[in-house]
Amino acid sequence: MLIPLKVDVPMSRRPWVNVAIIVVTIVVSIWAWVDESVLWAFAESSASVLVHVGPWHLIGNMVFLWVFGNAVNYKFGHVKYLSLYLLSALAGDFAHYTFSAGVAIGASGAIFGVMGAFLVFFPRNDVTVFWLIWIRPGVSRVSSGWIIALWVVWNVFELAIGWASGVAICGHLGGFVAGFAIALLCAASGLIKPTEDEETLLQVLSGRR
Fold this sequence. Notes:
This protein has 209 residues and is mostly helical. The protein contains eight helices and three strands, in the order βαααααββααα. The protein has helices spanning 16-34, 36-43, 55-76, 78-99, 108-121, 144-161, 169-189, 201-206, and strands at residues 2-7, 126-133, 136-143.
């Protein structure tokens, strides 16, 4: 188990859109737990990204969104970040409906899209993670490039060997591909530029700053 705690990304503006997404998601999810008809109404609509099936599902997703989303919101600005989030959610839902059965519930696809964007713009920034191997816990700092790649590879592995039952793995991967592609396009076109002390994935791969 690997849980992100914080990222090493200095931010010069408040990530208000990400905070708003988290607050709305928490409120809607609790509302849906109180009234099951609300849960299924959201689940059967394009707004299924706002509801979660239980507290641990919600807490896990919101931790990941808080850690990675704040930095991406800072980098993209409010309008672009909201667009990235929604497009990643749609891509995740599309991938799930195309390759899996049932209804996708939760923000995992959108969050994986945010992680994909983080990988493009902050590939060498450290992520502090809490890890638990068997019963031994610890906290470590790991390069975001490695840790995000590990999460994605693990999802592919789970899908390949059939461990994906009950989890929208295809939605995770679909959201990641969308977020990564959108961020890559933004970086390549110069729509979103790194500061002098930042380095994008394109710069890392090309060996230039």
